[in-house]
Amino acid sequence: MTQPHDVTDQTIRERLIPFPKAHFLAASDLNPFVTPQLLDLGDAFVDFNRQSSKALDLLHGRTVVNLFFENSTRTSSSFEIAAKRLGADVVTMPVASSSVKKGETLIDTAVTLNAMKPDILVIRHSASGAAELLSQKVGCAVVNAGDGRHEHPTQALLDLLSMRRAFGDVTSLTVAICGDITHSRVARSNVALLQMMGARVRLIGPPTLVPGDADRWGCEVFHDMREGLAGCDVVMMLRLQLERMAGALVPSTREYFRFWGLDREKLAWAKPGARVMHPGPMNRGVEIDSDVADDLDVSLIQDQVEMGVAARMAVLASLSARWGGK
Amino acid sequence: MTTLAILNARLLDPASDYDGPGGVLIENGRIVRVVHGASPIDADQVIDADGLCLAPGLIDIRVKTGEPGAEPKETLKSASLAAAAGGVTTIVVQPDTDPAVDDPAMIDFIQRRGAALNLVNVRAAGAATKALDGQRMAEIGLMDEAGALYFTDGDKVIVNSRTLQRVMSYAAAFNALIACRPSDPWLTEGAVAASGELATRLGLSGSPAIAERIGLERDLALVEQTGARFLVDQISTEGALETLARARAKGLEVAVSVSINHLCFNEVDIGDYRTFYRLDPPLRSEADRQALIEAVREGLIDVITSAHAPAPAEDKRRPFAEAAPGAVGLETLLPAALTLHHEDGLDLLDVLRPLTQGPAALLGLDAGVLAEGAPADLVLFDPGAPVIVDADALRSKSKNSPFDGRRLQGKVIGTWVGGRKVF
User: Fold this and answer.
1) Residue B35's beta-bridge partner residues?
2) Lower CB density within 10 Å: C or N end of chain A?
3) What percentage of chain A reaches a pLDDT higher than 90?
4) Residue B385 class from Cβ within 10 Å (0-12 exposed, 13-18 middle, 19+ buried)?
5) Is residue A1 predicted with pLDDT exceeding 70?
6) A255 Cβ partners below 8 Å, 6+ apart?
7) What is the pTM of this model?
8) Which chain A residues are closer than 8 Å to B137 by Cβ?
């Protein structure tokens, strides 16, 4: 870990680059040239966030609206803190409990909000493609904070930042993404971004939770943890939604934990020094044993939360840099 | 350790295709030597088989007991005694008990209870869905670890294709075997006999042969998609055999079993509403029976089972349609199977193969062969001895044998399990 040191406005401005696209909807909006630069910017924000004074004015006068159609605490707070530290005015709308219940469509909500002239809309929605649809209907930048089982690109960026800080280089890493791949937007974004950066990606899970055509994503697919984890540098566990257990796709939590839950024994099958990640929130004792999750020598899980704010600051700041910034 | 030799026998070993004179030497529960010809072997105990047939003990993969939940019908002990008397050295009990065997602890329970009896090898099949509800996948991985040999909902068809698809694809992760009765549940609803002229005349609702074909087509399509290891449980019609042949010609690897009852009886046997012939699937036409026998002859049938299903008198002494389906069969399995040899001219090895090596290979057991290192699970029998089956004398607690009063040829003289004489 780098020691916190004084990070000036100047350092950050020097590293600031304009985001390659008008919106950040999917990992494919990034490219292999701009991604390392975004990570450099993220590093600067990490140091900045470790200072006692954390106020910047990069987004001063700008309005960021967090539009969360699905309940989320950590992602919405992470975006809110990121935007506030950049000096933006932030409105977080838990739409899950408001107008949508009154029957308003996504488009209507978008048009209404658009009329209020926000600069950045951060959206989470349960339907795949919702962020894309919204981006076509509004005049501001849209950041996808998770759409259905499609993408969660800022998660992939923060995961990449966590990995680069832990390993220095991500291009030679072998990353195993384990668990419910089928329903995971985190998995899809991570596969795309990690492969873009040259890392090798493996997918491990029961056949009922790994899409049958996942091998065509360019990943190696395993159903056995021992085989799949052999030689991996990073073990990324995914959350298993409780409604998917109890017989529909997995017989029970105890069987899932026995064969696919990460504990010390299974972690030992990975490369020595392998690090453990989880996008949270964790089901302890289902997909991950607390013994592993809480061991700071192997777990990057807390780092991921910290990197979340920094990576999102990098995204928001670089989107604003497209408008000429300050 | 004492050694036992059984000499001067006619060895019948389907695995090595050997049918000829010879003997075996047994030590520590295993076969340590197999000799062909008349060479003598030194042993602490020598049994002169006097030309009788010595074969691997039979493996019956479809045995129902009433344990747990319906012990008056049959217990693991009464089933084991019946098996030993029938030359069956390994039984795989079905999970459709009450409660169902859908949990690793239940697998463990059955194996422990079975082992404590010190009779035959008692193994278990696990339920494919919890409480056999056809909806929620059972703990296939944990039961597999606990020793379950395969997974099935028994006589219940998993109607929901999505559930079956998930069960198959999940089981593939453990290379676990799934067995399923081929049947369309709607076409067979309420059916008690095979559709046809006879059932119509008797006024019994019929199960059409196409129901089996439709069910099988669905199951095979799912196998093709999921790559599961699969056993077609109890095929009974000519049409379904054709469907199977087509799938196999395309390269699909599936195993198939047939019950001894469908090889020995046809729909005419239900005659005057005799409920001991009320079976599920129902007895079919003579053409179906002949097609099944041909399939055995050609080696297309992997496993012959007794489909042992005890039902006490109170469940059978009822109007035909209300009587419980099923028949006991452990003790009569070998003589009944020998009718294929005596009456239909099948080679003895071809009759024994789906009773020994076939199920052993399917379930990954090291039994079912006469080979050095294999467990000394053996049956000594006289293939020509006449017997008249007396249901009341059967060791099963339930006496519902369709063979009652029948004249069969073939008598079990001795049964050894792990070198220990159990009959």
Assistant:
1) B23
2) N
3) 79
4) middle
5) no
6) B139, B140, B141, B142
7) 0.92
8) 208, 247-251
Q: Which residues pair with B203 in a beta bridge?
A: none
Whether chain A has a CB inside 8 Å of the CB on B9: the answer is no
Among A106-115, A143-152, B77-86, B401-410, whose mean pLDDT is lowest?
A106-115
Residue A133, amino acid: L
The two three-digit tokens of residue B346, written as one number? 């099948």
B166 to chain A: closest CA residue? A208
- What local confidence, expressed as pLDDT, does residue A326 receive? 46
- Reported as a pLDDT band with limits 50, 70 and 90, residue A246 is low
Nearest to A251 among B140, B169, B172 (CB): B140
Interchain CB contact of B267 with A (< 8 Å): no
Could you say which residues of chain B have pLDDT below 50? none
Residue B141 contacts A where some CB pair is shorter than 8 Å = yes
pLDDT score for A4: 45
Substitution target in A182, A255, A260 with the highest count of B β-carbons within 10 Å is A255
**Inter-chain CB proximity A251 and B135 less than 8 Å:** no
User: Half-sphere exposure (CA, 13 Å, Cβ side) for B357?
Assistant: 17
The C-alpha atoms of residue B309 and residue B328 are separated, in whole angstroms, by 5
Q: Is A227 on the interface with B (CB under 8 A)?
A: no
Does B209 contact chain A (CB < 8 Å)? no
In A, residues 158-187, which contact B (CB 8 Å cutoff)? none
Q: Scan for tokens 């990640």, then name that residue.
A: A277
Inter-chain touch A248–B166, beta carbons under 8 Å: yes
Nearest CA in chain A to B171: A207
- Residues within 8 A of A (CB atoms), B 70-129 only: 129
End-to-end CA distance of chain B: 22
Taking CB atoms and an 8 Å cutoff, what residues of chain B touch A209?
Answer: none
Q: Is the Cβ of B317 closer than 8 Å to some Cβ of chain A?
A: no
Q: Per-residue pLDDT for A265 more than 70?
A: yes
User: What ipTM did this prediction achieve?
Assistant: 0.89
Determine the Cα–Cα distance for residues A209 and A219; give it in Å rounded to an integer. Answer: 15
Contact A224 B173 (CB under 8 A): yes
How far away is chain A from the Cα of B108, in angstroms, using its nearest Cα?
16
pLDDT at position A3: 46
pLDDT, mean over chain A: 91
Contacting B residues, span 163-202, partner chain A, CB-CB under 8 Å: 166, 169-170, 172-173
Residue B190's identity, in one-letter code, is G
Residue bearing tokens 């039979």? B58
Q: Mind listing the pLDDT tens digit for each residue in A128-139?
A: 999 999 999 899
Q: What is the distance between the alpha carbons of residues B415 and B89, in angstroms, rounded to a whole number?
A: 7
How far is CA A313 from each of CA A55, A79, A81, A149, B117, rounded to the nearest angstrom? 12, 8, 9, 24, 70
Contacts of B162 in chain A (CB under 8 A): none
Return the beta strands (E) in B277-377 as ranges: 303-305
What pLDDT does residue A103 have? 63
Instruction: Please choose, from the candidates A249, A138, A142, A205, the residue with its C-alpha nearest in 3D space to the C-alpha of residue B136.
Output: A249
Residue A325 has pLDDT above 80, yes or no: no
Q: Chain A contacts of B146, Cβ < 8 Å?
A: none
3-class secondary structure for B69-136? CCCCCCCHHHHHHHHHHCCEEEEEECCCCCCCCCCHHHHHHHHHHHHHHCCCEEEECECCEHHHCCCC
Q: What's chain A's length in residues?
A: 326
pLDDT tens string A288-307: 999 999 999 999 999 999 99
- DSSP H or E segment with residue A44: helix A34-49
Query: What separation in angstroms does the CA of B290 have from each of A232, B209, B233, B264?
Result: 58, 15, 19, 10
Across the interface, whether the CB atoms of A254 and B139 are under 8 A apart is answered yes
